[in-house]
Amino acid sequence: MSLEKISLEKRLQENSYPGRGIVIGKSPNGKYAVTAYFIMGRSENSRNRVFVEDGEGIRTEAFDPSKLTDPSLIIYAPVRVLGNKTIVTNGDQTDTIYELMDKQQTFEQALRTREFEPDAPNYTPRISGIMHIDGGKYNYAMSILKSDRGNPESCNRYTFSYMNPQAGEGRFIHTYMGDGNPLPSFEGEPELVDIADDMDAFTELIWNHLNEENKVSLFVRYIDIETGEYKSKIVNKNR
């Protein structure tokens, strides 16, 4: 059964609460390695956030520090750069991947030291991506660590690798299949979606189709596959 391409805007529109999401792919003109990362929130604590630049990456911080109740799962660096690798995740496993890959471990080995978030009863999956650009070549991988159908005794780990990805296409992985109580974890392999050549248009497409009430922040980066130079965009609902 081949993976059917879905419209990213339709997928976002149909799902009022995908939670946090990572898109990685390649622009249609083949020039750019593309990633997008967004966060959403249902609680005041989750919604009270913004993305800020931090070196070559970004971090989350409280928009109104006086309202911050529990920073443990909401304040972290979603994006960090290690040499020619860009790491994108939905939690502090960004640092785990950065530190262990810096010690010559692989993406998968680094993530073996982690599991889903301890936020019963949701046990939110940890989703991660890594983009590797070297000498005009580009490949990427994505990972999800999740409880076994809501049972926290068992952790299921999946890694998906994309070598020389096709132009104009990307993969989209998100934490939840939709809103619910508990929130249902993402199922299956990352979804096949279209990528745009124009970073501003792609940013707008994602931001405008995320649920208005629940969306919090969005980060988009386009990396030139030949030179490694990048440009980024941050959109925060709180400003």
Defining traits:
alpha+beta; Glutamine Phosphoribosylpyrophosphate, subunit 1, domain 1; six-stranded antiparallel beta sheet; five-stranded antiparallel beta sheet; 41% strand; globular
Written account of the structure:
The protein is α+β, with helices and mostly antiparallel strands. It has a single domain (about 10-235), classed as Inosine monophosphate cyclohydrolase-like (Glutamine Phosphoribosylpyrophosphate, subunit 1, domain 1). The protein has helices at about 10-15, 45, 95-100, 105-110, 200-210; strands at about 20-25, 30-40, 50-55, 55-60, 80, 85-90, 125-135, 135-150, 150-165, 170-175, 190-195, 215-225, 230-235. Strands 11-10-1-2-12-13 form a six-stranded antiparallel beta sheet, with helices on one face. A hairpin with a 5-residue loop joins strand 1 (about 20-25) and strand 2. The longest helix has 11 residues, at about 200-210. The protein is globular. It starts with 7 loop residues before the first helix and ends with a strand. The model has no long low-confidence stretch (mean pLDDT about 95).
